[in-house]
Amino acid sequence: MSRGTFITFEGPDGSGKTTQARLLVEWLGDQGYEALLTREPGGTAIGDQIRNVLHRPDNVGMDPRTEFLLYSASRAQHVSQVILPALAAGNVVVCDRYADSSRAYQGYGRGLALEMVEMITGFATQSLTPDITLYLDIPPREGLERRVLGGEEWNRMDAEALAFHQRVRSGYLELAGADPARWSVLSANRPLEELQAEVRAVVSAHRKLVAK
Ligand code: TYD
Fold first, then answer.
1. Which domains does the chain have, with CATH numbers?
2. Is the pTM of this model over 0.90?
3. How confident is the model over 106-144, as pLDDT tens digits?
4. Probe ligand 1: pick from 9, 18, 44, 97, max atoms within 8 Å of CB?
5. Binding site membership of 51 for ligand 1 (Cβ less than 6 Å)
């Protein structure tokens, strides 16, 4: 099957992923690629409904297993309805958060067993793994401050203690260290144009895109 390229952005809250993902998609379009921008949780009408349940600040009683299964349910719909068809058509898919968010937030952050997270993720994603994962790294305190200053939506995760966000960050760094062929760790603490230039450099060096 001829398959497109699957690129994901990961990072703590407030790392600027969403802007970087959007700029990358615009640039890929200028380069002649058919590029789709999507995000998790959400990305489909069903996924957006699940997203609302996940993000409501008053859903404080949510069990970590419920939380993980909801993210996974949203992801299963997203993969089958949007991502796999776009890749099968040979397109580039850029996703703002994907399964590594569950590994980092529900696995390392909430402390769910990593083998269980892996097993359910494999099922939900039909084992679809990104070709390129860009991890935008920023110390949690700075990221959360950026969100407050930027007046962005404040969700249930943002309200977690700093220690939670620190576990998430070290989880991400561990995942990235274990698979350097897929992951690039980029420091997010600098001007967005500079960061975008590095994002483009990583993406254009990838064998699948070079081949075009
Ligand atoms: P969102 O509003 O998309 O924020 P951000 O701009 O930080 O991406 O909120 C997504 C939140 O959901 C974020 O705090 C991380 C969390 N999340 C998980 O905990 N697990 C997951 O699998 C995903 C996709 C997101």
1. 6-205 (3.40.50.300)
2. yes
3. 999 999 999 999 999 999 999 999 999 999 999 888 877
4. 97
5. no
Amino acid at the residue 116: M
Residue with CA at minimum distance from ligand 1 atom 14: 157
pLDDT (tens digit per residue) in 59-113: 989 999 999 999 999 999 999 999 999 999 999 999 999 999 999 999 999 999 9
What is the rounded average pLDDT for all residues in the chain? 92
Give the pLDDT mean for 48-65.
Answer: 94
